[in-house]
């Protein structure tokens, strides 16, 4: 089961109907990331994937930032912390191979773990989302931004690269030409500009951000979870596969969803002109615990 409470760098709480809220809680550090925080997040995401109580994950931050990137001054902070879910390791980046290992097995692993979840993910961008915080947001399925939020990679300002997969995610969202302009010119954009570029789905007033994000998460959590999870995977597969491959892939998934109780309920509800009651299997699982 997913562990709730205070972890290193964030808090986890579970809300009906199956929304796991992950809130970064280091506002003095602009919710900057460390090796310990990333490894804890990977463990939390893995637990959430395997916990039937969780249907949707929602990320947000406290203070003036969602996450302003890595906390370079305190990258060792939290190693061995009592709130850590995993034993400490060296943070890497002490040599060429150390940087490679730290990226592949910690920083990039966080975004690949997030992207590979079949459960839907929502991020409520309450402020600055830069570098690693920006790439984490791009790896989520839905992004809602407060009107005052600002987003960007801007790694070239330090002579660094968007090494956690940001360049790939940006190309998927807005194409090569716009990504070239965005990264090479070190752009940090407003929430409205991000919306115009296709980087966020919705911009809302600051005071309404969490309410709107929770409403979206609740809407998604009440949908037919098996079909939605398989469809999520199919959409991401289609972004990289041929038409023929995508047809075969979704046919294989349809062989599962067409025979699931949710599909039978959906058809019956349509015929009876009523709202469907999906996810009875999840309710039964919860009742047996």
Descriptive notes:
The chain has 289 residues and is α/β, with parallel strands linked by helices. The chain has two domains: 5-221, 2-enoyl-CoA Hydratase, Chain A, domain 1; 225-287, Lyase 2-enoyl-coa Hydratase, Chain  A, domain 2 (Orthogonal Bundle). Helix content is 46%, strand content 16%. A seven-stranded mixed beta sheet has the order 1-2-3-4-6-8-11. Strands 5-7-9-10 form a four-stranded mixed beta sheet. The mean pLDDT is 93.
Short note summarizing the structure:
The protein is α/β, with parallel strands linked by helices and 289 residues long. It is 46% helix and 16% strand.
Q: What secondary-structure arrangement, pairings included, does this model have?
A:
Blueprint: E1 5-6, E2 10-15, E3 19-24, H1 35-50, E4 56-61, E5 65-67, H2 96-116, E6 120-125, E7 128-130, H3 131-139, E8 142-146, E9 150-152, H4 166-184, E10 188-190, H5 191-196, E11 202-204, H6 209-221, H7 225-238, H8 243-257, H9 261-271, H10 280-287
Parallel strand pairs: 3-4, 4-6, 5-7, 6-8, 7-9, 8-11
Antiparallel strand pairs: 1-2, 2-3, 9-10
Helix pairs in contact: 1-2, 2-3, 7-8
Average pLDDT for all residues? 93
What helical percentage do the residues reach? 40-55%
Instruction: Return the structural class.
Output: alpha/beta
General shape: globular
CATH class category name of the largest domain: Alpha Beta
Looking at the structure, the CATH topology of the largest domain is 2-enoyl-CoA Hydratase, Chain A, domain 1
Name the CATH superfamily classification of the largest domain. 2-enoyl-CoA Hydratase, Chain A, domain 1
How widely separated are the two ends?
11 Å
Q: SSE string, helix = H, strand = E?
A: EEEHEEHEEHEEHEHEHHHHH
Strand order of the largest sheet: 1-2-3-4-6-8-11
What fraction of the residues are assigned to beta strands by DSSP? 15-25%
Alpha carbon gyration radius: 20 Å
Name given to the CATH architecture of the largest domain: Alpha-Beta Complex
- Structural domains: how many: 2
Biggest sheet statistics: 7 strands, mixed
Low-pLDDT parts are: none
Find the count of extended strands (DSSP E, 2+ residues). 11
């Amino acid at each position: 089961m997913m562990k709730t409470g205070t972890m290193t760098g964030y808090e986890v709480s579970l809300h009906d109907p199956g929304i796991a809220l992950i809130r970064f809680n280091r506002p003095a550090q602009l919710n900057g990331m460390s090796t310990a925080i990333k490894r804890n997040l990977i463990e939390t995401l893995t637990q959430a994937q395997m916990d039937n109580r969780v249907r949707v994950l929602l990320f947000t931050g406290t203070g003036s930032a969602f996450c302003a990137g890595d906390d370079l001054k305190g990258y060792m902070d939290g190693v061995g912390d009592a709130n850590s879910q995993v034993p400490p390791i060296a943070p890497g980046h002490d040599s060429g191979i150390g940087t490679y290992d730290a990226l592949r097995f910690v920083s990039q692993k966080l975004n690949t773990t997030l992207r590979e979840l079949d459960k839907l993910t929502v991020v409520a961008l309450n402020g600055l989302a830069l570098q690693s915080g920006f790439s984490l947001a791009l790896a989520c399925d839905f992004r809602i931004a407060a009107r005052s939020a600002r987003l960007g990679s801007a790694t070239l300002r330090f002579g660094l690269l968007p090494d956690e997969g940001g360049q790939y995610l940006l190309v998927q969202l807005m194409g090569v030409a716009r990504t070239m302009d965005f990264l090479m010119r070190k752009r940090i954009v407003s929430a409205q500009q991000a919306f115009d570029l296709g980087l966020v789905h919705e911009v809302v007033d600051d005071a309404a951000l969490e309410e709107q994000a929770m409403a979206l998460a609740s809407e998604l959590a009440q949908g037919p979870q098996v079909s939605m999870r398989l469809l999520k995977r199919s959409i991401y597969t289609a972004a990289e596969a041929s038409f023929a491959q995508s047809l075969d892939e979704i046919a294989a998934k349809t062989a599962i969803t067409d025979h699931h109780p949710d599909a039978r309920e959906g058809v019956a509800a349509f015929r009876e002109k009523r709202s469907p009651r999906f996810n009875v299997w999840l309710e039964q699982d919860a009742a047996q615990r």
